[in-house]
Amino acid sequence: MGIIPIISLVVFITGLSISLLLTSRGRFLLKSLVTKIKRQGWRFRSGKLNRLRSRFSKTITIAAIILAAVIAGNTVSAQVTPPPLASLKSVSVPEPNNLGDFVQNKPAAIKLGKALFWDIQVGSDGLTSCASCHFHAGADNRSKNQISPGLLRINADGTKNPDTVFNVGGAPNYQLKPEDFPFHKLSNPNDPKTVVSDRNDVSSSQGVSNAKFVDIKPGSAEDEVKTEPDPVFNVGGTNVRRVQARNTPSVINAAFNFRNFWDGRAQNIFNGVNPFGLRDPNASVVKAENPNQLKFVKVSLNNSALASQALGPPLNSFETSADGRTFQEIGDKFGRIDNTKSISGQQQDNIQVGPLLNSIQQISDRFGEIDNIKSISGLLQDVLSITGTKLPRVLAQKLSSLRPLGKQVVHPQDSVLGADSRSPQPGLKNRTYEQLVKDAFKPEWWKSNRLIQVDAKGRRTFVNTPDNSSQTDEYTLLEYNFSLFFGLAVQLYESTLIANDTPFDRFLEGNTTALTKQQQLGKQLFQGKALCIGCHVGSELTAASVSSVKKDGRIKRAPFGARSPEDNGFFNIGVRPVTDDPGLGGNDGLSGNGQGNPLSEARLAQLGKFQLLLGENPPILTPPLNPSETVSANGAFKAPGLRNVELTAPYFHNGGQATLEQVVDFYNRGGDFGVLPPLNLSPEEKQQLVAFLKGLTDDRVRYEKAPFDHPQLFVPNGHPGNSTSVTNDGTGKATDSLLEIPAVGRNGGTGTRNFLN
Question: Are 76 and 21 in contact (CB under 8 A)?
Fold first, then answer.
């Protein structure tokens, strides 16, 4: 073969390699090629590649040598300029296109959302709120009674097989220690084969103790409940607070996510009722055409995964609610409810809702961060389903007579609530939740002279007056639609929690000294050799963002290997075996058999249900999606954004790594149970990468400056005693240890300590 063809081929392959290096997809492809060459033992012998035997072997060998030099010589390094990134300040916070159809005063809605997010009166125990698990950099830094066993474990055939053994600490109420991490221990952190021990427990967040909801007590923050024995979360037969089955992600910058929860369960479309968007055909609210004329309507708000997510925890029997409570009862808590009221209220007038009731009973706890699990010896039921979550109307009845934040001091300089502060007295002055709703939302969603009556069979009728029957419940329009108000208000508040003033962002804006030299070298690794930008792309540093999905589609093909279809932004990186937790490979539970439809949107496309359940046509893949091909969903989880990652330990969906150094070691060895390529980082490069990750911290978050300031909070922090002994409070549950988080105004404070620090 002549010299000109050789040179031409060499130039072509070299140019192709450089072109590929300019994209994250190309870097993944090339890195995978290098890894395969290393692993399969391709070697140079006598001037030839022993697996490349043809009359073009010399030509291909020369080209491969140059290709290897480009890839391996600088190891996909920063000497090839990656696509430019822009500061997060350049990205608009996504909002629903039709928000104005519901909200009449956005600042008032943000005020309502902040009050609801931080108010511990929302919880059945009068002590838990959204903020109870999201008070430290939007996440949770508690370390006592924060272990959950492998409750989401499944068998290879997908059937439930929950593990109830506490491998870390041996029992609940354990105080975690630095030496407990990582949960998957190796004698050599660079070699995944040197396993010393492996534990499938999860480090997460404690919620409420196991109890059945009986009734709200109008004017009381604490619901009337009946303690039920908990076969898992108990010490010596005394119930302790249950711990969720997945680690708590930060709510800061979560407004950029296209879907929320680790498994993507909280849909981008908000239906006003629950997290499932268009997947739930029965979800509806009530609209007043005029004060005397009501009608049931379906609502659909895009870019609202945070609103979808917000409706999970308040009714989840692991997070903040006794089993069986509804949003309407919470509202009455903040005046009135008969505990025989029906769970449902989502059908048209006089329509039987038996199938829906069955569905709700099978998915109720799924509003939280666990999946639907069958009972353990007939005792542990629906750890992550929706059985134990009625709808939001009773939450509305609970809150209607309570002073907002009535147990917590609000700083007089709070950036949102300061003007209404009663400091040093707790709560907001001259405010009720009813008035806050009316200030924020258009009157057609709360103003009516008529009531919505729900009978014992779930049939609904519009009436003028209550019938005083124990077989029916009546709700005002404001109570009935409380889930709509709760979800949108919390979303609008959380959409202000944007951390975009990090050293990294300032560096991207042109301040060349914002990052240290070590951090700049780490940035080069992040965008090159370390392959981080394969999943943490764009200004948001996650492929799960609204802008990433808009650019690349909701589903796409993996850029290497078998090029399997996958949901954009969801990856299996080998943190745990797929049987420990199916993640995106699970189902939504919205069916009579407790299974429902796949959470994976690629699998929905295979089933021909994409348009029906997601409201748009599926992307066209190349090659086209085959209904029988394997989808990459089992064990896949949403890629989180990375700003403030220095503050949000423990890490990954199982909380199994306690430090950034442990996280970098994990990626360097190619993961623990996956197919990630090893990175072969030097000790110095690891330090550079960790330094860069610390350059993603916004000091407003660190020191709780506006918009990250907040009211006073009392957080359950385990129980007095230890994992062998607790004190029974006389009702079957353990007494609490409470941690006070002081109120902070717009100028911030000293911040709260990091996990295990």
Answer: yes
Mean pLDDT of the chain, nearest integer: 84
Instruction: For helices 3-21 and 24-40, give the axis angle rounded to 10 degrees.
Output: 120
What distance lies between CA 227 and its chain's CA centroid? Answer: 29
Using an 8 Å Cβ cutoff, are 705 and 746 in contact?
A: yes
| Under 8 Å between Cβ of 744 and 704 | yes
Rounded to an integer, the average pLDDT of 3-17 is 43
**227: which residues sit within 8 A by CB, 6+ positions away?**
209, 210, 211, 239, 731, 732, 733
Q: Model's pTM, two decimal places?
A: 0.85
Q: What is the pLDDT of residues 685-703, one digit of tens each?
A: 999 999 999 999 999 999 9
Beta strand 460-463 with 451-455: parallel, antiparallel or unpaired? antiparallel
- Cβ–Cβ contacts within 10 Å for residue 321, how many? 35
Q: Which two tokens stand for residue 651?
A: 């890490």
Q: What is the dihedral of CA 121, 123, 125, 126, to 10 degrees?
A: -10
Cβ count near 419 (within 10 Å): 12
Contact 78, 525 (CB under 8 A): yes
- Tell me which residue has tokens 């091909």: 629
> Of 59, 669, 114, whose CA–CA distance to 440 is shortest?
114
Is the preceding peptide bond at 623 cis, omega within 30 degrees of 0? yes
% residues pLDDT > 70 (the chain): 78
Q: Which amino acid is at 116?
A: L
What's the distance, Cα to Cα, between the start and end of the chain in Å? 66
Q: Are 387 and 339 in contact (CB under 8 A)?
A: no
Distance between CA atoms of 262 and 585, rounded to whole angstroms?
11
pLDDT bracket for residue 169 (50, 70, 90): very high
- pLDDT tens for residues 471-505? 888 999 999 999 999 999 999 999 999 999 999 99
Q: How confident is the model at residue 594 (pLDDT cuts 50, 70, 90)?
A: low
